[in-house]
């Protein structure tokens, strides 16, 4: 029995990334790559991995289709990295089966909402330098967030200085709506554009009428300058 347990705890050889340890955890395949000084996500993670720990590394970006081949993946830990950028299709291929995704304690300021709203996983987003805006608000409203970490989603930057340093949930509970502010900005821009076009049309009409009036006056003056028929008869 001890020999069998030893076999379960040793790496799987060529099927396991050299910087990771692959083993059994709760009856499923687990890939443990914690604290291995990784700067990117390993390419050769086993396809049947169910648990993947990439925490406490130096990963800065999650590119598109980074986990697409891991159709069995249920738990993904990317906490305590240096992640700044998450591509729109970063979790494509694992969105349906993923149960937990930990992105806490990174350097994430913003993330395409499509990358997270496509997931049914429980999300941990705490302790990041978030910019509080409409996209993050929609994630908070629509995504399945870990209730224990929601209070730690704090505004590092925001449209107004008074929101900086406050939990996003507290700001929203006070009645702030970042999405309506963006809508107002869009409406104002559309109004200005429509007004500019309307003004151009008015100016064109005025110039057209003035030009026709001048041509008419010139034509009338020309007709008046011609000798009359009676003068010719005499």
UniProtKB/TrEMBL annotation:
Q: Does the keyword Cytoplasm apply?
A: no
Keyword line: Leucine-rich repeat, Membrane, Repeat, Signal, Transmembrane, Transmembrane helix
What range(s) does the LRRNT domain occupy? 15-51
Residues that span the membrane, as ranges = 188-209
Signal peptide from the UniProt entry: 1-22
Its placement in the membrane is given as: Single-pass membrane protein
Q: Write one Pfam family the protein is assigned to.
A: LRRNT
Q: What is this protein called?
A: Leucine-rich repeat-containing protein 3
Name of the gene: Lrrc3
């Amino acid at each position: 029995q001890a020999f069998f347990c030893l076999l379960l705890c040793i790496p799987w050889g060529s099927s396991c990334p050299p910087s990771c340890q692959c083993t059994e955890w709760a009856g499923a395949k687990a890939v443990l790559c914690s604290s291995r000084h990784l700067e990117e996500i390993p390419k050769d993670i086993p396809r049947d991995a169910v648990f993947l720990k990439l925490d406490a590394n130096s990963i800065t970006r999650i590119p598109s289709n980074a986990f697409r081949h891991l159709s069995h993946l249920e738990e993904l830990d990317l906490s305590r990295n240096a992640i700044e950028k998450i591509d729109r299709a970063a979790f494509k291929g694992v969105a349906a089966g993923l149960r937990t995704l930990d992105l806490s304690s990174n350097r994430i300021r913003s993330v395409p909402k499509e990358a997270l709203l496509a997931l049914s996983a429980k999300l941990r987003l705490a302790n990041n330098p978030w910019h509080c805006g409409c996209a993050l608000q929609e994630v908070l409203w629509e995504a399945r967030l870990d209730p224990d970490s929601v209070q730690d989603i704090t505004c590092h930057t925001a449209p107004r200085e008074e929101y900086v340093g406050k939990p996003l949930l507290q700001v929203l509970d006070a009645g702030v709506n970042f999405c309506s502010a963006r809508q107002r900005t869009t409406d104002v821009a559309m109004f200005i554009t429509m007004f500019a076009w309307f003004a151009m049309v008015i100016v064109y009409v005025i110039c057209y009428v003035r030009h026709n009036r001048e041509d008419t006056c010139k034509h009338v003056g020309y007709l008046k300058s011609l000798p009359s028929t009676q003068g010719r008869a005499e």
